[in-house]
UniProtKB/TrEMBL annotation:
GO terms for biological process: putrescine biosynthetic process. It comes from the Bacteria. Keywords: Hydrolase. The keyword Hydrolase applies. Coiled coil: none annotated. The lineage of its organism: Bacteria, Pseudomonadati, Bacteroidota, Cytophagia, Cytophagales. One of its GO terms (molecular function) is protein-arginine deiminase activity. The keyword Transport does not apply. It holds the Pfam family PAD_porph. This is Peptidyl-arginine deiminase. InterPro entries: Peptidyl-Arg-deiminase_porph.
Length: 227
């Protein structure tokens, strides 16, 4: 019993020391299982599976609207009104939803929207990682340099620029501190795994065919014995 009490005191001391050395102004991303202030949704997807998308998203909204604030972004006022009518017809209580017009917005809001972070001073931050359309423009030009001056590339570039502004608009809508993401992917990995050697492999050819290294490999776990 004495050993248990001593161990508990030691853990508390270590935890307290760790807490004292934390910078209260430093932003971090909480786990998705932690309490939410709100859940953001993008506007409707268009195309052949739009009906299924709307049905699924409306069911998600109905499942959570009693527990958390729902916020929905649309690229224009007219599309927002269409979305409101559709949600209402699907049984969603739109009076519980906060709607925002954000030019450039689309359905995959986690991809191009703000990544929200917090600190221990009660502040909310919105990180801008300079979304670039999944790098698709660079890929297409690498594959065929003759399309550089095409109207298709111009339109895609315009859409990408507009969509890249959504995260800053979300920062304004939530009164969050706008934080410019200034680390490269390599820098992020080195920061996360400082004791490991980071090796980058150019997997672009796999990406062009719809996959990547993760899709092409499968880990076999090390055998373990509970002791």
């Amino acid at each position: 019993m004495k050993k248990l009490a001593l161990f508990t005191i030691l853990v508390l001391i270590l935890f307290t020391c760790k807490q004292e050395h934390q910078d209260p102004t430093a932003f971090y991303m909480p786990g998705e299982f932690e309490p939410h202030e709100a859940v953001w949704f993008g506007t409707w997807i268009m195309g052949e599976w739009a009906t299924d998308y709307k049905r699924v998203m409306s069911e998600v909204m109905k499942a959570i609207d009693a527990h958390v604030q729902i916020k929905m972004a649309s690229p224009s006022d007219s599309i927002m009104q269409i979305a409101q009518k559709k949600l209402d017809s699907l049984g969603v209580d739109i009076s519980k939803i906060q709607f925002f017009v954000m030019p450039g917005e689309a359905h995959w809001i986690r991809d191009h929207g703000a990544a929200f972070v917090v600190n221990h001073q009660g502040e909310l931050g919105a990180v801008d990682f300079e979304w670039n359309g999944y790098g698709s423009l660079d890929w297409r030009v690498l594959r065929d340099s003759t399309i550089l001056d095409s109207l298709e590339i111009f339109r895609e570039k315009t859409r990408t620029i507009d969509r890249a502004k959504v995260d800053s608009l979300m920062a304004v809508a939530t009164d969050a501190k706008w934080i410019k993401g200034n680390l490269t992917i390599e820098g992020l990995f080195k920061q996360a795994f400082p004791s490991r050697k980071i090796v980058f492999v150019d997997a672009l050819m796999l990406n062009w065919h719809g996959g990547g290294i993760h899709c092409s490999t499968q880990q076999e776990p090390e055998r373990r014995v509970l002791r």
